[in-house]
């Protein structure tokens, strides 16, 4: 696509040079200036030959130079500089206009083609549910989330179509490329390139805290643009009001702001207050690498809660920010559960009993989290479910139900989190359909599809 655009651009430049020259022949004084432009020079030289390519324009006096003349040599230099400049310009255009959507298309894919097919009975049940998804990363997408896109996973039209009442929008602020790419330094942050390509403000290029703040601004801007069809929920009062309004207007949808990884506090506890003021109500302590709060399930630092981390956890509980233990190391999970006085979540994960890897929860941890009133969101990609289809998601959910009881399971898609999922936000009814086919009761389906997550939010959000 971009190759064609570049070709068109050069062709247009060629035409411009040709027509500019024709005009220049009539205006002799401009002719000499145009001759200094390599493209014009090329056409002038062509028409100075035996063959009259451009009738009426052979009188230019500036074609007398030979290949050895200094002006000729300078012209070639200019040609090279001009070519390099055009190439660099094309590179810049590609980086800023093509890379973000291309990246989105490549990494946030779905396996099933629309329209998604579910049983009428399941569709009817799904429309009666209050669906909640505990995790998506759509705020780092370059897409306008108020408009339906044909790629990626989440936008308002697709949330409405999927009857998603509440979507938690978490903000990843750092993606260290630690593994699998040996020629990159371990602290190389791929997200910096992506947000630079998306033309986020300069303050967000170097500060993960500023990135998080800017992402909150993006969701607030979306709320404004939506003209009342989407709202950000930040308290139980707002939650109840929203749910009442949605009974009358089922196409309404809402979001809760979250951050993924508290490295974005940049070691400053007061930054947590600023994020809270910006609307953040759920926070993952770590993301793809350990930080000064605690260790992650991945990377070199897999330790427990630090002294700073303990202060962070206490401040989160004080302010009523929901603690998210997704991506946490086993030691960190234990340490947090030891001191937590409120229920926590693991917003997007799986179970080692279904798919045994570091990203997923052991049976012991799953039982502990549920025992303290927490809710576990099952993500939709192979690393967490062990498979690529809807049946794998259902299998993980049913495993969790058997392990910790139906009151502690929820959806945690990880949509737009650089994962390939079976469907996008418009196809969540496929899970309702699969659970119904697995002979789960309607009440239990309602709990998994949203009621459990709502209960957790009612228990953990601030009142006002
Ligand atoms: Zn994640």
Topology:
Blueprint: H1 2-26, H2 28-35, H3 38-47, H4 70-107, H5 120-127, E1 131-136, H6 156-161, E2 164-172, H7 190-197, H8 203-206, H9 208-225, E3 230-232, H10 236-248, E4 253-260, H11 270-277, E5 280-284, H12 307-319, E6 322-324, H13 330-339, E7 345-349, H14 363-371, E8 375-378, H15 382-385, H16 390-404, E9 409-411, H17 429-437, H18 442-460
Parallel strand pairs: 1-2, 2-4, 3-4, 4-5, 5-6, 7-8, 8-9
* Ligand kinds: zinc ion
User: Ranges with pLDDT <50 over ≥5 residues?
Assistant: 1-7, 13-32, 50-64
Distance between the termini: 50 Å
Structural class: alpha/beta
Q: Using the alpha-carbon principal axes, give the shape.
A: globular
CATH topology of the largest domain: TIM Barrel
Order of helices and strands: HHHHHEHEHHHEHEHEHEHEHEHHEHH
Count of distinct structural domains: 2
The strand count comes to: 9
User: What is the CATH superfamily classification of the largest domain?
Assistant: Metal-dependent hydrolases
User: What's the architecture of the largest domain in CATH terms?
Assistant: Alpha-Beta Barrel
Assign a percent range to the helix content.
40-55%
Please, how many helices? Answer: 18
Characterize the largest beta sheet: strand count, sense, and whether it forms a barrel.
6 strands, parallel
Mean pLDDT: 86
Question: Which value, in Å, is the CA radius of gyration?
Answer: 29 Å
CATH class category label of the largest domain = Alpha Beta
The proportion of strand residues reads: 5-15%
